Every structure is written in C-alpha cells, then in structure tokens.
C-alpha cells in the first residue's frame, strides 16, 4: 500500500492506493486559516501535524490490515509558504501562506535585482517564499535572528514524519531561491535576500526517498518505522503527476481555490516577463509552466457567502450549457492577481451593474470573469513558448459542465473530464511514494486517467466570447488605480 497526503489550504487529505494504483480508501481532516490583517494569511504548523494524526487514526479504524501493509508515503502541499524553525526544529511563528501578500514591497525590491529573474526563471511574486522571509527579517527581527531553517508547508510535515530537513525541486522552485534550470539552490539569490544555504533543506527529486518514519511517529500513526517517505511535490506538480502531465503539451486546467492552467515541459524555457511560472517538475529532467489566478472558486465562494446560497445551487441555476456572454462584467481580483498582471494591490469589481440583475446574473458574471482570466493565462503561456492542444479539467469547479464548456470555448480547445475517481494531487503524491519505494519509472506510473467525456468548444459562440474577453482585458488597466 502507498499513501498520498495532500496538504491543502483548508485541510489534509489522505489517499491509499495499492501497487496497481487501485484506490483503497481515503480520509480527511480540516483546519483553519488566520487572517489577522488585510492581505495576511497564516496557519499554525501544528494544525497540519494534528490533521495528519487524525487522518491516520481514521484509516487505522477503517482499514487496519491495509495500514500494516503501507510501504511508502508521499506528500503534496500548497506552495510558497514560509515556515520558520529554530535550531530544535520548532516553529517560531505561524506559517505565511501562498496567498499572503503583505510582502509586496519586499518582492518588488528583490525583483529589481536582475539575478532573480535570470536564475529563478520567474518574477519574484509577493506570494513567493523569499519576500515573505525578508518581510519577517524587517518587521520581526527577533524571529528572523532565531531562524535556523525555512521549510515549505509539505516539507515541514515531512520533517515531522522523518526528522529530515528536505525539499523537492518542484516546491523549491517557487521560493525565488532556486536556480530552476540547474535544479539547485542559488548562492546568489540566497545572498540577495539575506539567507544562507545552511538555512535551506537538502534537495531531492520528488520521486526519491528522503528517509523513513521516525520510530515515535511510526508508533503514533500505527505504521512500521521502515515506511519510506518520498520527497513529494508542490500541489500543482503533484496534480500533474496525478493526471499524467509530464511532457510538452500535456496539461490541465484546475478550478480550485486558485485557478491554474498548466503544461508539462521537456526543457527549461522561462519567460519571466509573461508572469508565467516556470518550475521544476516533481520528476527528474522535467519542468512545467503555468499561469495562476488567485481567486477561481474563491470568487464563487465569496459570492456564495454574500448571497446565502451554496456554490452548487448558484451554478445549477445557470444550467449545463452556455448561451452567450453577459453584459455584466466581473474582475476576479479579490486577492490581487498573479498571471499576467503581477499586481498584489489590485482588487475585484463588477462593471455594468443594473437594477434588474439578480443572483443568476451575478453568478454568470463571476464564472465568466474567472474564465476570461484563464484565457489571459493561455495567452501568457503562448508568449512563453508553451503550447496546449487539449486539457483535463480538475478541481471543484470542474463539476459544473457550464463552466467547463465556457472555458473550452474561450480557450478554443476540447477539455476532457476524467471518469469518476481520483486524479488530483493526492494521487500524484501516492504515485511519487510508489516510485520512491519501488524505483519505478515515473513515465510508466504517471499515466492519464480514463476520460468520461470531452467537452468541445462552442464554435457558434466563439466570436461572441472572444469579443467579451477583449472588453475584459481593457477593464483592468482602466480601473486599476480605482481598486487599490
């Protein structure tokens, strides 16, 4: 048996598979995010380890024999978080999460150093790890002075499991400290942000083992201390492993809390000016590129909270098929934006509100605004030399056929819906665990899922949505100064 743990923003999910990749069982536990000030987003690392104990307790209760047969664990996690540890490995403060944008000024200063884009292959976004730690150095100097190690969220969970300070290439690529082409920490980038190599974990490929369980943790979880722990992956790289997107042209669109348009790449070909992320993949000698919008289903969830209706009820009112763009326009920048704008300060807006508009109109506008932003991401990927011919849709938003058909039409390419089953980051993490324990070739393990349906673009509505997207792109520069 092999276990994939997906350390998400709202909770931890465990997925158990056998050697044939048959799903055996799963378990979940949830935790909270603290937002003490606008733009801040933090979590207690202890909540992650508590959640880990909870999911394993559930698995032991429901599948005791299978837990005795576990050979390896792989962990996927939300990227870019800054978990600062003292010399004993204890957290010094809550982790600053991926959607924490307090370090915009520090990110701007680092990005002005040409070495950062040249070696990392990326803009220094406020959500990345390096500017967050620089913010701590400048605003919490007593904490920074005690910082012996900085770990990404899933790497802290791996440290708790094994006692090893380790990270994988895919997650580390989002720190602004990694030479992404060379797949190694950059002394230049570390020096440029006041850090040292000694404060970094040891690097591994995601499919490689980093160690075995600490005996006390093995006893707590009810597992053998010989269980191998893989280096794992950042959540998007793990999701790419879960749906078999390893090479050029293989990609997915993810409608989760954030929105992601991702393609595998066989080589390192960055274009930082496009605001496309160019990261190492979780498997050796591969990279991937993606565009990221910060509020995809988060935009729908925001509307849901304010209208007092569930997201499912809101999208159900739209039906299953699109009929043309709305005259109401929504800019989905509720938490700022990454691709293509790199603007942490901008905020969302409705344009064209009319007294006749009701919940269904607002829902359609929100769905369209997120989809238009994903079209911006496709254009950014194209400018970086990436090409996509078809996509697999994943994430909670992909349950809306209306939404998937809209994206297919805007991107002008077919979108595949996987057959019922597991295909996301937890499966990718379990696949990495399988590779770490068996030394299997990732290309033979990380295959595409069975496809239940392919949603084709609506050729009859393509021109109308293309025109609506053109109007959307003109809105951001027109109101940028009004929403900051």
Automatic annotation (TrEMBL):
Carbohydrate kinase FGGY N-terminal domain residues = 1-242
Q: Could you read off the lineage of the organism from its UniProt record?
A: Bacteria, Pseudomonadati, Pseudomonadota, Alphaproteobacteria, Rhodobacterales
> Organism's domain of life?
Bacteria
Q: Which Gene3D superfamilies match?
A: 3.30.420.40
Q: Which PROSITE patterns match?
A: FGGY_KINASES_1, FGGY_KINASES_2
Q: What is this protein called?
A: Xylulose kinase
The similarity annotation says: Belongs to the FGGY kinase family.
* CDD domains reported in the protein's UniProt record: ASKHA_NBD_FGGY_EcXK-like
Entry keyword Cell membrane: no
UniProt keyword annotations, A-Z: ATP-binding, Carbohydrate metabolism, Kinase, Nucleotide-binding, Transferase, Xylose metabolism
- Read off the InterPro entries from this record: ATPase_NBD (IPR043129), Carb_kinase_FGGY (IPR000577), Carb_kinase_FGGY_CS (IPR018483), FGGY_C (IPR018485), FGGY_Carb_Kinase (IPR050406), FGGY_N (IPR018484), Xylulokinase (IPR006000)
Return the HAMAP family for the record.
XylB (MF_02220)
Q: Give the Carbohydrate kinase FGGY C-terminal domain ranges.
A: 252-437
- GO function terms (MF aspect): ATP binding; D-xylulokinase activity
Q: Which GO terms describe its biological process?
A: D-xylose metabolic process; xylulose catabolic process
Which species?
A: Shimia abyssi
């Amino acid at each position: 048996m092999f276990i994939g743990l997906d350390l998400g923003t709202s909770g931890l999910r465990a997925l158990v598979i056998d050697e044939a990749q048959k799903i055996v069982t799963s378990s979940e536990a949830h935790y909270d995010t603290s937002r003490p000030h606008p733009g801040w987003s933090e979590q207690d690392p202890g909540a992650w380890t508590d959640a880990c104990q909870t999911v394993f307790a559930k698995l032991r209760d429901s599948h005791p024999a299978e837990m005795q047969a576990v050979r390896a664990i792989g962990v996927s996690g939300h990227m870019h978080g800054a978990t600062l540890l003292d010399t004993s490995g204890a957290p010094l403060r809550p982790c600053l999460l991926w959607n924490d944008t307090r370090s915009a000024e520090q990110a701007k200063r680092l990005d002005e150093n040409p070495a950062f884009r040249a070696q990392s292959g990326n803009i220094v976004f406020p959500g990345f790890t390096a500017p967050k730690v620089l913010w701590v150095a400048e605003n919490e100097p007593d904490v920074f002075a005690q910082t012996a190690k900085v770990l990404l969220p899933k790497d802290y969970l791996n440290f708790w499991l094994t006692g090893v300070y380790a990270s994988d290439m895919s997650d580390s690529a989002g720190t602004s400290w990694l030479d992404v082409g060379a797949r190694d920490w950059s002394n230049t980038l570390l020096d440029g942000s006041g850090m040292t190599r000694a404060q970094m974990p040891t690097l591994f490929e995601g499919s490689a083992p980093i160690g075995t369980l600490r005996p006390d943790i093995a006893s707590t979880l009810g597992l053998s201390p010989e269980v191998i722990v893989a280096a794992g992956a950042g959540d998007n790289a793990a999701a790419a492993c879960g749906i078999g997107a390893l090479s050029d042209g293989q990609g997915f669109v993810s409608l989760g809390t954030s929105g992601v348009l991702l393609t595998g790449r066989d080589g390192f070909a960055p274009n930082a000016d496009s605001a496309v992320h160019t990261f190492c993949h979780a498997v050796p000698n591969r990279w991937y590129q993606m565009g990221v919008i910060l509020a995809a289903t988060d935009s729908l969830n925001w509307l849901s909270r304010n209208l007092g209706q569930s997201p499912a009820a809101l999208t159900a009112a739209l039906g299953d098929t699109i009929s043309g763009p709305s005259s109401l326009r929504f800019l989905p920048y509720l938490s700022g934006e990454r691709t293509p704008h790199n603007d942490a300060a901008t905020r969302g807006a409705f344009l064209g509100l009319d007294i006749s508009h009701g919940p269904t109109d607002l829902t359609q506008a929100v769905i369209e605004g997120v989809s238009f932003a994903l079209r911006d991401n496709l254009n950014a990927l194209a400018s970086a030399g990436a090409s996509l011919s078809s996509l697999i849709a994943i994430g909670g938003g992909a349950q809306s056929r209306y939404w998937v058909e809209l994206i297919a039409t805007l991107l002008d390419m077919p979108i595949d819906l996987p057959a019922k089953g597991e295909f996301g980051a937890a499966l990718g993490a379990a696949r990495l665990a399988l590779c770490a324990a068996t030394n299997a070739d990732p290309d033979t393990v990380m295959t595409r899922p069975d496809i239940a349906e392919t949603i084709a673009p609506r050729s009859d509505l393509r021109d109308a949505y293309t025109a609506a997207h053109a109007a959307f792109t003109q809105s951001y520069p027109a109101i940028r100064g009004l929403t900051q």
